[in-house]
Design goal:
This protein is an all-alpha fold. About 50% of the residues lie in helices and about 0% in strands. The protein has helices at about 5-15, 20-25, 30-35, 70-75.
Length: about 80
């Protein structure tokens, strides 16, 4: 099984080389990621993709300590990670 870091690298690398994939990722990240990585994610999980530029900094905070059992299972299965 691939790690979250490996899956992220695959998505980021492809988005840097394939403009159509990048646009799909921005428009519908969850479906695009699931299709590309051949994985499924819980219905309750949402994915947000932010496109960086030289004027904007994005900070990803770690999950709230009060996550649900379903979210915890997704993290432990490698379907979600702190990117």
């Amino acid at each position: 099984m691939r790690s979250g870091d490996e899956m992220l690298r695959q998505i980021v690398d492809k988005s840097a080389l394939d403009a159509d994939f990048r646009q799909k990722l921005l428009a519908d990240p969850k479906s695009t990621i699931c299709e590309e990585l051949d994985i499924t994610m819980p219905e309750s999980m949402s994915i947000q993709v932010h496109e960086s530029d030289m004027q904007t900094v994005h900070i990803a905070l770690p999950p709230d300590q009060n996550i649900t059992e379903e979210q915890l299972e997704a993290v432990s299965a490698g379907l979600c990670c702190c990117w």
